[in-house]
Amino acid sequence: MRAVQYHEHGDESVLTLEDVEQPTPAPDQALVRIEAASVNPIDTYIREGNVSPPSGLPHVGGSDLAGVVEAVGDEVTRFEPGDRVFATGLGLFSPGTYAEYTVAPESQLASLPEGVEFRDAAAGAMAFATAWRALVTRGDLELGDVALVHGASGGVGHAAVQVAKAAGAFVVGTAREGEAADLAREYGADAVVDYRSDDLADDLEAATNGRGVDVVFEPHADLHLAANLDVLARGGRIVVIGEENPIEIDAGVSMTAKQADADLRFMSLMASPDDQVPILERVGERLADGRFTIEIDEVFGLDELPAAHRELMSSGTLGKIVIDPSK
Q1: What is the pLDDT of residues 206-217, one digit of tens each?
Q2: Quick one: which of 137, 184, 138 has its CA closest to 165?
Q3: Distance, CA of 135 to CA of 118 (rounded, Å)
Q4: Residue 306 burial (CB count, 10 A)
């Protein structure tokens, strides 16, 4: 079968399309024919060596998949050949999804309802699972809360907007004014603030009519922490899903946090496999009935993985990037 793997850590140039042996499922695994995968920032971190796969190199990357079960191990009871499935959180402790086939633990596979396109399921898996876990599971988002979603036009951000709206929140998003802001509004943001503002905290405060924010969805904590704390309502929660540099809290910021009774929370979907399937089952239902939709920015083939990784890390991506092994 064809798979994209790398024999050393580095930039996207280390990704190579190769013919490799089709895997055989272990007793608790299913062999899945991959109809679609997607590209996520965690894939690039693993590729660069910031997070190392325990199995070592060479390694097939990719976290998300949607496809069809081809075979199952002796201990698998929930699936049989022919079942439609989707999954996320793969590609670190198990083989990745940049391939025509992969094996995945039964415990990480969710049933994919009929009528949901494979590309949509693959694109939505990590995006919606991350958004749901951050806002609902870790953020305790409730009806009537104000949610702040940074990067509201991005792959995970536009999913977070939809999750927050579905929970009954007033949603403030940050995005570049123009096409990105329009996309955030299209998916349900009640107000959008340009994150490049010189007075981000003041603009966010104005967007909430002075009420403040109850839950912050934060993929860039090193950039926004001070503004988040300035706009946080008393008892508010900041859920950190990512940062590119150290998060610094100076004395002034610390005092603001104490006065607000702020709660800074961290999460990683890769470290919470037990949460994934119940969330994905709910996401699948909502994709099937149209309550959730996913924005696909571009579709690449396996031989175009380096370009897909470059596109992901560019600043202009709206929505998700999908990999189609048949393309």
Answers
A1: 999 999 999 999
A2: 184
A3: 25
A4: 17
Map out the domains of the chain with their CATH numbers.
Answer: 2-112+295-323 (3.90.180.10), 127-269 (3.40.50.720)
pLDDT, one tens digit per residue, over 89-148 is: 999 888 899 999 999 999 999 999 999 999 999 999 999 999 999 999 999 999 999 999
Compute φ and ψ for 33, nearest 5 degrees. Answer: -80, 115
Angle of CA points 266, 132, 49, to nearest 5°: 50
Q: Strand locations in 49-145, DSSP E?
A: 59-60, 64-72, 84-87, 101-105, 109-111
What's the mean pLDDT in 31-55? Answer: 93
Q: What is the pTM for the complete model shown? A: 0.94
Q: Report which of 182, 174, 181, 190 is spatially closest to residue 228, judged by C-alpha positions.
A: 174
Are 171 and 190 a contacting pair, CB within 8 Å?
Answer: yes
